[in-house]
Design a protein that fits this description.
274 residues; alpha/beta; five-stranded mixed beta barrel; 23% strand; rod-shaped; transmembrane; SURF1-like protein
Length: 274
């Protein structure tokens, strides 16, 4: 079989099979690399306050590597654009988040960031949004999904959906929101009344695995091995055919040796004529 495999055409076929296998292995490596999502930043990094305009831009989706980051932003509150988010718990008590649009200095197209200014037990406990130059320090979080139900009266919404708030406020906005840990206006803390600060800790860092990509990666490895196996199978078949051809050749020679005398010629005799 080695003699058959060393024939030029089968050497060329082997090189072609190895090239295909290499491509399949590279595809498998790519599938493995995409199977695991990018690791989120360390908790220590997310607690370092960074300017919002350096971390995130409006009009794009908030990635997992950007979420939970502590950010700071300068601008001003748009007090008329305030909503309440229902079904929020604080130490086991049900209440509302107070969310106000914050016009971020340096944001393109005058985009606003929804800021959770605090929690209240009743809508009457909401303190007016402060006016003036403000600085907000808080945690950047992904938006919630919209709930398919009509908004309640008095500006109460069932979820904090940035896409829904863009329509309610009729202004461009960020696809995220910030829970304010600290708010200062003209260098001083504003009056908050009965509102309580909403503190959100960094979420546990988990790396999700896409098992479908893992399955595809294994498939590519199988395909790579099959391409080499197919070459070996073809060489084995060619070798077997060559052996069968040789057997037929020798069988024909033996048949020729067993044939009788040619017609018209005397048959050989073992006795000497007297």
């Amino acid at each position: 079989m080695l003699k058959t495999a060393l024939q030029p055409r089968w050497i060329a076929a082997l090189l072609f099979a190895l090239a295909i296998s290499t491509v399949f292995v590279l595809l498998s490596q790519w599938q493995f690399s995409t199977a695991e999502s990018e690791l989120p930043p360390d908790a220590g990094e997310t607690e370092n306050v960074r300017p919002l305009t350096e971390v995130f831009t409006p009009g794009v989706e908030l990635m997992g590597t950007q979420a939970d980051q502590m950010v700071s932003m300068n601008g001003s509150f748009r007090g008329e654009d305030t909503v309440l988010i229902d079904h929020r718990l604080y130490d086991g008590d049900r209440g509302y988040w107070v969310v106000t649009a914050f016009a971020v200095d340096g944001a393109p197209d005058g985009a606003v960031m929804p800021v959770v200014r605090g929690w209240v037990a009743e809508p009457d406990d909401v303190a007016p949004a402060p006016s003036g130059d403000a600085v907000v320090v808080g945690r950047l979080l992904p938006p919630e999904g919209p709930v398919a139900q009509a908004p309640e009266e008095n500006g109460v919404l069932p979820s904090l959906s940035s896409a829904e708030l863009v329509n309610v406020w009729d202004t461009p906005g960020y696809s995220a929101f910030v829970t304010a840990d600290e708010i200062t206006v003209d260098g001083e803390a504003p009056e908050t009344g009965n509102m309580r600060v909403v503190n959100v800790d960094a979420q546990p860092q988990e790396t999700s695995v896409n098992w479908m990509n893992i399955f595809y990666a294994i498939e590519w490895v199988v395909f790579a091995g099959f391409s080499v196996f197919l070459w070996w199978r073809l060489v084995a078949d060619a070798h077997q055919r060559s052996l069968e051809d040789d057997d037929e050749y020798y069988d024909d020679d033996e048949d020729d040796d067993d044939e009788g005398p040619v017609s018209g010629q005397p048959a050989p005799t073992s006795e000497v004529q007297k």
